[in-house]
Write a structure and sequence with these properties.
The complex is a heterodimer of chains A (399) and B (306). By secondary structure, chain A is an alpha/beta fold. Helices cover 53% and strands 8% of the residues of chain A. In chain A, the strands form 2 sheets. A 5-stranded parallel beta sheet of chain A has the order 3-2-1-4-7, sandwiched between helices. In chain A, helix 2 packs across helix 6 and helix 10 crosses helix 11. Chain B is an alpha/beta fold. Helices cover 49% and strands 13% of the residues of chain B. A 7-stranded mixed beta sheet of chain B has the order 3-2-1-4-7-9-10, sandwiched between helices. Chain B has a 3-stranded antiparallel beta sheet with strand order 5-6-8. The two termini of chain B are 31 Å apart. Classes of the chains: A alpha/beta (399), B alpha/beta (306).
Amino acid sequence: MSSQNIQPKTSEEAQKSKADLRRERRAKQEEQRAKKAAALLSVNQKKTLQSEKSNASASLKQEEVKNSHNLGAESKSKDVVFETTPVKIKLEKKEASAENTSNNSKLKLFHYFDEYKRDYSITEKSSLESTNIHPSFIKLGLQSAHDLISCSNARCIGFLYALKKFIIDLKFPSNTSKTLPEYIESKLKTNINFLTQCRPLSVSQGNAIKEMKQSILHLPLNISETEAKDLLVEEIDKFIEEKILLAAETINKYILADVNSIISGTSYAHSKISDNDTILIFGYSTLVNRILIEAKQRFPNIHVIVVDSRPKYRGKKTLEKLLKYDIECSYILINGISYIMNRVNKVILGAHALLANGYVMAQIGSSQIALVAKAFNVPVIACCETYKFTDKVQTDALV
Amino acid sequence: MNVPDLTTYFNEVIKNDPNVSPAVAAIKTLLEYIRLKSFSTVVELRESVIDAIDVLTRTDSSAISVRSGCEMLLRFITLTALDAGFDSGMEKCKEILLKNGQVFLSKASKARNKIARMACAWIPSGSNILVHSKSRVVLEILREASVKNGTFHTYVCQSAPDNSGMSMMEELTNFGIKCTLILDSAVGAVMEKVDFVLLGAEAVVENGGIINKIGTSTIGLCAKMLNKPVYVAVESFKFVRFYPLNNRDIPDEYKYKYSTISTVKDLEKEHPLIDYTQPSFLTLLFTDIGIFTPSAVSDELVKLYL
């Protein structure tokens, strides 16, 4: 499919790292998918075949699933070599235990942690009929629920890719009273509800949905189906290109005050990072990694301290990435930050969202880091693209 | 007018009027430069002015206030270049630029008096004031206040290494204001006696903090600790689009004189001339565009630069 091959036109280096990012992400996704999602998909395929209402829709969905499998095969052959045939595993019916009922009372926000893992498959006990959900959304939902996609940028991009496939595969029946935008929206609603059930939508995904709904509503009247699809696909690509990828580049340029592209128009632009700096980062953020990699090129003597925490140990991924670029790194768990904070020059955090009252929502543990930094008088810089801004207000971590 | 002429003209202006602020002198120099030199395009003009600004910041006066004044002028004239219209020739454009530049210059020169008139209401008679180093704006305010409000007492910090506090004290005595010279190290001891602190600034940064003679940060810290208000008197052309995270973040061009940077190898051994005082230590800023709290500065900056 053409959608997978669209790459933004940027400088070679940035393109390489972005492609790297995407390849790694996709490789990991495909790997996990082959083990878990592929099995479940084949089961779903059987289910969709069984409960089909009309031959047309069934064949369509078969095509979709086949296509996504082919895609998987394509990228698999490019990057990683492993089995291409989906393994037919019998889905074991887990016995309903007492733990199941207690899961419902636990906080929805943490559902993807292992401690709160569901004992049932989402597609089994989903209140919505699986027939109405597009396979790419099922895939995304499962990946989110099993925490295979974690970074908020990745979740948003994953959602937008799924949306693209959904729009391309959509067939507007001639016998409905709805207009095209209404039809798309109603179909989209069920898919989004499914996603929300798998894992509460991130702020980035929420904002993307709002934007896309606006684009859908503003489709010109009397437009043909193919034209509408092209328009929407273009909007999605534009959103990804401008709001996510270029925004990351701009943030980079502001922080490092790239002399060749002074944005403020004055000559004050001064890099926030200087040579011989000790920078503390937490967990895994694509934005912060990118800043550090570019900073290393300008300032060869920076030292990075990666702080990590249970249960996911995302800092290890960051460490791998930074070491590839020969950045001098230290690794410490979050329990030990009071020991090293006095030697830190600045803290750079990635953000999940920026709230209307100026508060930053970020990976769990970030507020702890900020508090300790404040106690040691270390400046904390939070990096956030504007598409993650929300008009929510939250004064406490959970309320 | 070429490079050596720029610096000579600049030094001339300062010599002729010792009361002029280095930023205003730099603006005058730039306007003279634009008047004398011939340009064929607006872009060429802009580029040459930017080069001229770089030259002027390399004189030994306060680099950051010179830069801020010049950047403000550049912003001002670049915006008004559009008023000239596309069809008119370069001469007409230059005329309009110079006219607007003169407007800016007169506003800048009058800024000090405006601030003095606004701020003298905050200096009641019988108050004890702490001042630091030689600030011409603060001198103007105190002079105005002593005439309008009555007598008050001033404690002046010696302000090593150039002992500019002594010259400040001379001026104050000439105005008939009671003053006492104190050591920089005595600030902690004297702070309990004063009612408020009145400071000048070389620049105001984006978060509302100030860049001023070394020692200011200490005074701000002591004042905050003892709950004494800190008032900063500064002209609006000293607002800069610069955001230091802490003192370490200030670039060397501002901390040391240009002659020091060009001759000394190891800057670590040199004494910095300025420091950064964080906005949480400051109470109010008196400027010619109004009286603000530090948090309002970024708002005003946006308005100035847009």
